[in-house]
From TrEMBL:
Organism from which the protein derives: Halorubrum sodomense
Superkingdom of origin organism: Archaea
InterPro entries for the chain: DUF1616
Identification of the protein by name: Uncharacterized membrane protein
Ranges annotated as biased composition (Low complexity): 135-144
Length: 319
């Protein structure tokens, strides 16, 4: 029992790590100013993950006393390890929740640091062998344990450096295939049929009230996951006031719900009648992920696109 207590005392650096995690999370949670949040955020994201990883890898070795030289070495190793680990944790958050959120990253990094720190305490206790403090001169940084896993000329720092490089390369490869946060990952487009082919031009811009026309709506999923979509098409008369657009009248054309896997596309020809006359009339398409609201608008839609129409009143309408 005494040896375990002694070993736990020797792991007081990891106790400081736990306190640092708690302080960092509380600082972020209470919403202090950006300047006040910067030091704990840097500590949590850029120092602690690498520190606990290195501490876990070095748990079986005699720990050198804290001197200026060892502090500099440990900080450099912690920073390098964190820069390799943090992008990987960020990608895990993105794949898990579909977005890189502040609390998602803070939660995962905090959990990683705490779990690895606890595992390091257990590993240090196990290496004590139940016999109290290890005796004898501390081994130098180049001395190798003949019975340990790190044999044949490999030092813990070499292994950590190799693992960091592997993680960095893997992270870079994954980052290439995962769209950046905010990148357009679903394509909504309007097409017309010309000569048996669908093209993105020659839209029906001059119609007579009551005349029919057709525009093809297309959706392509590049969200890297299956998505349920709903497309709502409307014919709208709008009033322009500066940069603002006010919808004064509208007619629902159609609504479609469908699911697309990654890389799949959906297209549908929307035939409509020019029931609204005027120069400021447009064919509008709203795209939603999931179910749309009762009154779709550009503010609530995931994607919006439209084409302007010039619809002349018919002689019979008198409008």
């Amino acid at each position: 029992m005494s040896s375990i207590a002694d070993e736990l005392f020797e792991s007081r650096d990891l106790l400081a790590v736990g306190v640092s995690v708690a302080v960092s999370v509380v600082t972020i949670a209470i919403g202090t100013t950006g300047v006040a949040r910067l030091p704990p955020a840097v500590l949590l994201l850029l120092v602690l993950p690498g520190y606990v990883t290195a501490a876990f890898a070095y748990a079986g070795r005699e720990r050198a006393p804290w001197t200026f030289t060892t502090v500099v070495e440990r900080f450099a190793l912690s920073l390098g390890g964190s820069l390799a680990i943090l992008p990987l944790l960020a990608i895990i958050v993105y794949l898990a929740v579909g977005a890189l959120t502040t609390w998602g990253l803070v939660g995962l990094v905090s959990g990683y640091v705490v779990v690895v720190a606890a595992a390091t305490v257990v590993r240090r206790t196990g290496h004590s062998g139940g016999g109290g403090h290890r005796t004898g001169p501390a081994r130098s940084g180049t001395e190798i344990s003949s019975s340990g896993l790190l044999s044949g000329g490999l030092t813990p720092s070499t292994v950590i450096l190799a693992v960091s490089v592997i993680l960095a390369v893997g992270t870079l490869g994954t980052a290439v295939t995962v769209p950046a946060d905010g990148e357009t990952a679903t394509d909504l487009h309007l097409l017309t049929e010309q000569g048996g082919q669908l093209v993105a031009n020659d839209y029906p811009n001059a119609l007579t009230q009551g005349e029919s026309a057709a525009i093809t709506v297309g959706v392509t999923n590049d969200e890297h996951r299956p998505v349920e979509y709903t497309v709502v098409t409307e014919l709208q008369r709008v009033q322009l006031s500066g940069r603002s657009v006010v919808v004064t009248d509208k007619r629902r054309i159609d609504q479609h719900a469908f699911e697309l896997a990654q890389g799949e596309s959906w297209r549908e020809s929307e035939e409509f009648r020019a029931s609204l006359a005027g120069e400021n009339v447009r064919f509008v398409t709203y795209l939603y992920r999931g179910d749309p609201p009762e009154n779709p608008t550009a503010d609530t839609a995931y994607r919006t696109t439209y084409v302007w129409l010039d619809i002349q009143p018919s002689a019979a309408s008198g409008e």
